[in-house]
Design brief:
about 280 residues; alpha+beta; Protocatechuate 3,4-Dioxygenase, subunit A; 4-stranded antiparallel sheet
Length: about 280
């Protein structure tokens, strides 16, 4: 993607973002983020133990940059192995947004692109924190430059992909996984980029018992974003309007999402990849 396309994308979102998008829309050395992970005491809304002093601050190695190849064959363990408690708060829904497009069932959704490799583990449970067998999860997020891929609404969508024909022809950063009896799904992707007017986020839809239960979004720790965007060569540096802080993201506010419940927990792995996870409770 050339600089002109990226600039066009940013200009479109600066003008329309607040009015349209926000209205329509290894050994782990460090742990950051919210709740609902390994060792949590309150299920999907419980607290998580942490080590280190922030996202990447004291690590003696850098984040990986080359994409998901570093994660091939790697087993980072089950981040939910220590349990998630016995009472899980139902995850609130939020807008699907304008940039949804068809996805295919796949684990690696990066399509070989470069960026910070991220393994995303999601556990779908009921309000008693019991896994929901055969739950299906679809996720989608922007690329490292804040651009969405896919044939959105059957045209080369200027709003979501800035008129970039290469992005429109791609299906990267979109995927579907169906859980087994353990309620757990795994995606390999890249840490999402950002675009003006929105906090860094991942869209997801959960289908359980044959019915679409809800659509919502996942978010990331502020210190983690500062570290990633300030050190990664494949991400546009914060400038101009910049990325939105979680606390001032309009979608979070309008959907009454609690930051304690929607920020994923993350760990930097010894190979430089990121492990991110969240338990999601559905009614």
């Amino acid at each position: 993607m050339n600089d002109k396309t990226k600039a066009s994308r940013r200009n479109v979102l600066k003008v329309a973002g607040l009015a349209a998008t926000l209205a329509a829309c290894g050994d782990a050395l460090e742990t950051t983020g919210g709740t609902g992970g390994a060792g949590g005491s309150g299920g999907a809304g419980g607290s998580t133990s942490t080590t280190g002093s922030g996202a990447g601050g004291d690590a003696d190695f850098d984040w990986a940059t080359g994409g998901t190849a570093v994660m091939d064959g790697q087993d980072y363990g089950d981040p939910f192995a220590e349990g998630i408690g016995s009472v899980c708060t139902v995850y609130l829904s939020s807008t699907e947004g304008p940039c949804h497009a068809p996805s295919v069932e796949t684990v690696d959704i990066s399509e070989g692109n470069a960026g910070l490799p991220m393994r995303l583990e999601l556990l779908i449970v009921d309000t008693s924190c019991n896994p929901i067998p055969n739950a299906t999860v679809e996720i989608w997020h922007c690329d490292t430059h804040g651009v969405y891929t896919g044939d959105i609404d059957g045209n080369n969508d200027d709003f979501c992909n800035g008129g970039d024909t290469e992005a429109a022809a791609s299906s990267a950063y979109r995927g579907i996984q169906t859980a087994g009896s353990d309620g757990r799904v795994t995606f390999d992707s890249l840490f999402p980029g950002w675009y003006g007017g929105r906090a860094t986020h991942i869209h997801f839809t959960v289908t359980a018992n044959g019915q679409t239960t809800f659509t919502s979004q996942l978010f990331f720790d502020e210190d983690l974003k500062t570290d990633v965007y300030g050190s990664q060569p494949n991400y546009d540096p914060p400038s101009g309007q910049g990325y939105q802080l979680n606390a001032s993201d309009q979608v979070i506010g309008e959907s009454n999402l609690s930051l304690d419940e929607v920020v994923v927990t993350t760990q930097k792995q010894a190979d430089g990849a990121m492990l991110a996870w969240k338990a999601i409770a559905v009614a």
